[in-house]
Amino acid sequence: MKKQVTIGFILLGLSASLLLMDACKKKDTAPVNTFNPTYISLKIPAGWPTPPLDIYANNRLTEEGFQLGKKLFYDGRLSKDGNFPCASCHQQFAAFATYDHDFSHGFNNAFTFRNAPVTFNMAWMPLLHWDGGVNHIEVQPLGPITAPNEMAETMDSVLYKLKAANEYKTMFKSAFGDEEINSQRMLKALAQFMGSIISANSKYDKVKRGEDNFTPVELSGYNIFKAKCDACHKEPLFTDNSFRNNGLALNSLSDRGRMRITGNRNDSLKFKVPTLRNISLTFPYMHDGRIYSLGQVIDHYRTGIITSQPTLDPLLVNRIALTNAEKNDLVYFLYTLTDTEFTSNPRFAQ
Amino acid sequence: MKQYKCYRIVSILFLVMLSTSCQKSVELPIEKTGTLKISFRNTVKGIPIVLGTGNYTNGFGEQYVLTKFKYYISNVSVSNIDAVSSETNSYHLIDEAKPASLSFSFPVKIDSYGSLKLLLGVDSLRNVSGAQTGALDPLNDMFWTWNSGYIMAKLEGNSPQSTVVNNKVEYHIGGFSGSNNALKNLTLTFPVGKILDIREGKTSEIFIDADIDTWWQNPNDLRISTDPVIATPSAMAKKIADNYSKMLQVKDVINY
Questions:
Q1: Does domain A63-198 sit in CATH 1.10.760.10?
Q2: Shortest distance, CA A30 to any CA of chain B (angstroms)
Q3: Does the interface predicted TM-score (ipTM) exceed 0.85?
Q4: Backbone angles phi, psi at B94, to 5 degrees
Q5: Residue numbers in B near A184 (CB within 8 A)
Q6: What is the pLDDT of residues B218-234, one digit of tens each?
Q7: Which CATH architecture has domain A203-342?
């Protein structure tokens, strides 16, 4: 009898414990996690270096974040009067520069201060803007959104408009797990889109991959390029991301470039070396769009450099010697850097 | 007797299983803590400022009215000879226009502490790490969009001695690297006889005065008539930061 009672107690105790364990287990798994985004990764083209900074270290790429960023990029709500989305100055068909404009148009018929830079291959750009003033892709949009001569908005007002739009509630939830809309999420989403825009499918790339061949003229141009241009326009990104004075006269806006950021006189008239990828689409050229054609750009390096400037880049003190035939071949090579697959890719289109 | 033993075994078994089965959902306190509250009072020579209406005079006899006064406090910790207790994710924007911003609280390991360490400004890492939120949200109007980086301290107002439009006075002091680094790591000591005694479940409060009068002199002269506006990371901005690095003073410590 005593034994039976004891065993009974033991069984009772055990089953009660098991029940409790079970209850606890259920509690652990109770909150069902509905945030299940599609993670994607930045595809680094073969032969390219690793980006200098992992721009997605604190902003994991998802398809939902990319799509939200794309919607924001093409949305006029980010500007004061609705007319100036990011894409108004960064046009896909112009390799995300402004086609055929020295300066771009902003709010109230204002002009920008500089030629719109391209917004592709940004994951490989440690500093953004012609003067390198912006140090991270996530904070880049704050400049144009709030500049009175560009989108002329305030972040408060942009967020107010986004919060009023139902489609954004859904998209922020898919990208970030809940409907909260704040500046950080908006900027991270834009970074997901902009940083994913990669151009690596030009004829040059196909030749490098063994899928195509240069014509004799293009090949000659490539050899000239490697001998005379490659020091600054370094392959495969066609820029070394440095800041250099290439001997242009100070413009009427007294734009001294990098010096505006560093306050250092030695940086006067230094501007970021732009990529030459898609260069045939991004005319006019230079930080203020003062040179219209590629031929004229080459002429600047042959004969136009103002060699008396104290901050002139050491590589340019003797200008660049090129015959007319070499100039011709070089331009044909530069045309091979045009990537029409990327300028017509629906993934980057509105 | 035997039966009693069995009861004991069963109940112990039951308790053991109960305690282990629910461990995941029970948060075990790793260390005992109390609460430290830090309160700021913005003054001119000890007199609390009033935005918009208060009239003040600097050491050069220049008069001014204040319309904005805000600054970042980050990386806060308290320490004694043996131990340091730091606030996690420690970023605060002290804004005279927002009373709720003038104090903040965080848990501190129980112990006695003799000094308070903080950074007047935002550490360089957060200046280069992309979009932030909370106190560091660009919506707080303390972030430069054309030259990425935080404005560490902002003082705005008017003065008859200012030569710019609307007699404006605008000091946006920032810069986080190189020779223009305006960051100020400070160690503040407590008034004689005061100790921060953090006890379990109790609150202690540190009262700090920020004296705007320090902005104008020592070691660098700042005259409104010559420099009414400073709004970029620069040698002059750094000089002002050198001045205001002396603005914070612990006035009292109370252990409630």
A1: yes
A2: 12
A3: no
A4: -85, 115
A5: 131-133, 137
A6: 999 999 999 999 999 99
A7: Orthogonal Bundle (1.10)
Query: CB distance A17–B18 less than 8 Å?
Result: yes
Do residues B56 and B44 lie in contact, with contact meaning Cβ atoms separated by under 8 Å?
yes
Query: Would the CB atoms of B3 and A13 count as touching at under 8 Å?
Result: no
Distance (Å) of CA B256 to CA A323, B101, B115, B197, B202 = 85, 22, 18, 9, 7
Per the CB < 8 Å rule, is B145 touching A146?
A: yes
pLDDT at A34: 79
Residue A141 corresponds to which tokens in the numbers above? 């949009």
Instruction: Give residue B27's pLDDT.
Output: 57
Comparing CB atoms, the residue among A9, A136, A261 nearest residue B6 is A9
Backbone CA torsion sign across A288, A294, A296, A297:
positive
The C-alpha atoms of residue B82 and residue B93 are separated, in whole angstroms, by 30
Extended beta strands in chain A, E state: 105-106, 110-111, 243-244, 271-272
Query: In chain A, which residues have their Cβ closer than 8 Å to the Cβ of B133?
Result: 182-184
Please list the ranges in chain A whose pLDDT falls under 50: 1, 10-27
**Stretch(es) of chain A classified as CATH 1.10.760.10:** 63-198, 203-342
Task: Compare CB distances from A142 to B128, B143, B233 and report the shortest one's residue.
Answer: B143
Contact at CB, B21 and A27, closer than 8 angstroms: no
Chain A residues within 8 A of B132 when measuring between CB atoms? 184
Pull the structure tokens for residue B227.
Answer: 């420099």
- CA of A78, closest CA in chain B: separation in Å? 15
- Taking the C-alpha atoms of residue B66 and residue B45, their distance in angstroms, rounded to an integer, is 14
- How far apart (Å, rounded) are the C-alpha atoms in residues A300 and A294? 10
Q: Where are the domains of chain B?
A: 32-255
Per-position pLDDT tens, chain B of length 256: 455 555 555 455 444 444 444 444 555 557 899 999 999 999 999 999 999 999 999 999 999 999 999 999 999 999 999 999 999 999 999 999 999 999 999 999 999 999 999 999 999 999 999 999 999 999 999 999 999 999 999 999 999 999 999 999 999 999 999 899 999 999 999 999 999 999 999 999 999 999 999 999 999 999 999 999 999 999 999 999 999 999 999 999 999 9
Q: Does B234 touch chain A (CB under 8 A)?
A: yes
